[in-house]
Amino acid sequence: MRLLPILLFVVLAVVLLLPALRRIQLPARRVPRALPDELVKDPVCQTYIVKSRAVRRIDAGGVRYFCSEQCARLDTGG
User: Fold this and answer.
1) How far apart are CA 34 and CA 51, in angstroms?
2) pTM to 2 decimals?
């Protein structure tokens, strides 16, 4: 009869302490943080837009970024 409370205590201690011991032993996983997106300036209307959502046009001078297809069509290239 004395064995039952001791066994319950051991089981309870293992259940409660095992997750804590795992956290101590394993290094914390670092979640890579996404870098903030760069803002680019539309050469036609002079507004800023997030680079990943901008309309891109490639010419001899490099890549140009626009806020919309309409601004891209209005661009004179200068």
Assistant:
1) 14
2) 0.53
pLDDT, tens digit, 9 for 90 and up, residues 25-42: 666 667 676 667 899 999
Cα–Cα distances (Å) from 69 to 33, 34, 35, 53, 60, in that order, read 31, 27, 26, 12, 19
> Distance between alpha carbon 63 and the CA centroid of its chain, in Å?
25
CA–CA separation, 52 and 47 (whole Å): 15
**Cβ atoms of residues 72 and 66 within 8 Å:** yes
Instruction: Please state, in angstroms and rounded to a whole number, the distance separating the CA atoms of residues 37 and 17.
Output: 43
Distance from C-alpha of 49 to C-alpha of 38, rounded to nearest angstrom: 8
